[in-house]
Amino acid sequence: QVQLEESGGGWVQAGGSLRLSCEISGITFSITRMGWYRQAPGKQRDLVASITSGGTPTYADSVKGRFTISRVVKNMYLQMNSLKPEDTAVYYCNAYRRDRDYWGQGTQVTVSS
């Protein structure tokens, strides 16, 4: 089993920055990919950014140039700069291991205009 716990969400004005953290515990070997997803009220959960076990990142077009994903051993981060009101959502940490997805409980990010 993989356990994930997010932190770092909160309220920020447009143009501001936040850094989300995801602490990874449990059986962590063979995790092939990790990522951040977000879900706004009434909308589906969408991929924001992902990073492979080899360190290759990918980003949704809406966050390219503003967000940076990184991973250091048992922590994953999402640095979010130049935040916009449309970035408001619950952000979830995800890990993919042996054909199974694992999720954290989510952390709320609210960006005011």
Task: Break the fold down into its secondary structure elements and pairings.
Elements: E1 2-7, E2 10-13, E3 18-26, E4 31-39, E5 46-52, E6 57-59, E7 67-72, E8 75-80, E9 89-97, E10 100-103, E11 107-112
Parallel strand pairs: 2-11
Antiparallel strand pairs: 1-3, 3-8, 4-5, 4-9, 5-6, 7-8, 9-10, 9-11
What does this structure look like?
By secondary structure, the protein is an all-beta fold. Helices cover 0% and strands 61% of the residues. The chain is built from no helices and eleven strands. The protein has strands at residues 2-7, 10-13, 18-26, 31-39, 46-52, 57-59, 67-72, 75-80, 89-97, 100-103, 107-112. The strands form two sheets. Strands 2, 4, 5, 6, 9, 10 and 11 form a seven-stranded mixed beta sheet that branches. It has a four-stranded antiparallel beta sheet with strand order 1-3-8-7, with no helix packed on it. Strand 5 and strand 6 form a beta hairpin. The mean pLDDT is 96.
**Average residue pLDDT:** 96
Sheet with most strands:
7 strands, mixed
Task: Report the β-strand fraction as a percent range.
Answer: over 45%
Name the helicity range: under 10%
General shape: globular
Low-confidence stretches: none
Instruction: Classify the secondary structure makeup into a structural class.
Output: mainly beta
Report the strand count. Answer: 11
Radius of gyration: 13 Å
Q: What's the N-to-C terminus distance?
A: 40 Å
Oligomer: single chain
**What's the SSE pattern?**
EEEEEEEEEEE
Number of helices: 0
